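Re: export button greyed out
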Amino acid sequence: MKPLIRPRSATDDHPLTKIVLSAVAVVFIALFLVMPLATVFSEALAKGWEAARDALIAPDALDAIRLTLIVAAIAVPLNMVFGLAASWCVAKFDFKGKNLLVTLIDIPFSVSPVVSGLVYVLIFGLQGWLGQDLRDHGIKIIFALPGIVLATMFVTFPFVARELIPLMTDQGRDEEEAAVSLGASGWSTFRRVTLPNVKWALLYGVLLCNARAMGEFGAVSVVSGHIRGLTDTMPLHVEVLYNDYQYVGAFAVASLLAMLALVTLGLKSLLEWRFAGEIAATHKH
Amino acid sequence: MRKTLILAAALLSTGAANAGNVTLLNVSYDPTRELYKDINGAFASDWKQKTGDTVTINMSHGGSGAQARAVIDGLDADVATLALAYDIDSIASKAKLLAPDWQKRLPQGSTPYTSTIVFLVRKGNPWKIKDWPDLIKPGVHVVTPNPKTSGGARWSYLAAWAYAEKAPGGNAAKAKAFVAELYKHVPVLDTGARGATTTFAQRGIGDVLLSWENEAHLALKEAGGDKFQIVYPSNSILAEPPVAVVDKNVDRHGTRKVAEAYLQFLYTKPAQEIEAKDFYRPRDASVLAAHSADFPKIALYTIDDVFGGWTKAQQVHFSDGGMFDQIYKPGQ
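Workaround output, generated via the alternate export path:
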């Protein structure tokens, strides 16, 4: 692979410096990003297409894919609503404790996912705060779907809000104030002014949130219980297959996850390219 | 507050179990994946024949200590099939989910099969490893998981200790020195037996793997060809992985009858055959005799003889600040 060096430059750096810097960047990206990704796909296809396909349509793999999709289908829309509400609150209103709220939103970014999973075990586990009551009522939270959804939601909570807060703060509240002074209700102000202004950032936040929701390992691993065909999500199933000596299967499922990441990136680039003008217009610089 | 939360939880919850079919959850340790896959199929058809009911057995695998912890925290196991008695003891003592005398309910201390700890070395045995003292030759790297989390690792540790203490002229102080020296040869501690096997076999780390006998045979089979070979030391430990019905869970699920039948099935001849085929030493003498080629006779110490039982062994060796913490200093 040859680095792309543009001869026309806006700086006076020595050409050699630029060549070296670019080469370092390209080598770094190739070594740490492209090669591992390529390995995932090549390992998946090590025994041909059929073997990889068979691994993906095995009952346990299908169950893991189904569970992952269900979890994302619950967690992502809820986090979209929560993220939108939180960033609307933070960006458009002044209130006591606003900084505290912003800090709280960031907690899942700073806490290790394993710890977030353990928190749910401490609350809902049999020895935890609610454990015995839940069991008496026949309700399962951890080691079942609700726990996996909760852990996923916790970990992916900041993605939407973190995309929206800077943009919404940037946009200020002039347009909303204008709408309200012209007699628009709160809801219609939100729907017709606020939402259209942030739709691309929102979509991008949702994409990232979804990618993480489907790929989360640590927190889900703690609350899953690892029951095959029931509580193993795709990332957990990759580990199971790898430990079962089923390397083709493990990498086949892993390459599905990798493809999800590539599609996310592709969609993001597509959005940025297609709607570059609109996205720029919503930023008031 | 709690009421509201529970109501909210009820709305979220997945609800009732499937009616009609019986479902069991077997929470097991790491290397039994292949064993229970085979056993579950055999038991399901046996049960169908006897009662007409369809039984589905769900599996959860992981490090034995971690799995016990999960059951204590509410993982809804009907039966626990773990690597060592102490882990089921802790389910009984910490969560009170089964009676303290659970081990007396089934024959042979509720251990339908046994195993031992052997050495897996690379092709041709380049370090000429024949017995325990060879493990501490300068330059030898030993792979074994963390005794704090892995059942197999605890058996490995105790096997090394028993060797040194029972060797001619041996005593507890010499055993401590030997085991301390041994762990200086361990470059990395995985959390579970299967993780350690992949570290050794797939990632090519280390010169010798201290392994469950069944795990070593499986690695040999999976690798194909002659990449590895098994070395039997002059003596080792009789590893007894026990099984138990988790009383409170089966009574709540109404699955006691089938759960008990499932564990009793493990002692039947067809099941003992499957266990031998998956390289667990069967209790049945005739089945063991038929597979004697796979299970060389070596001297096996028991945990009761050398360590006075699991409760004591756990307390002395693996508790916080215990013997293992004293001898194992990472990075030295």
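Residues 3 and 22 of chain A are 7 Å apart (CA to CA). The button fix ships in the next patch.
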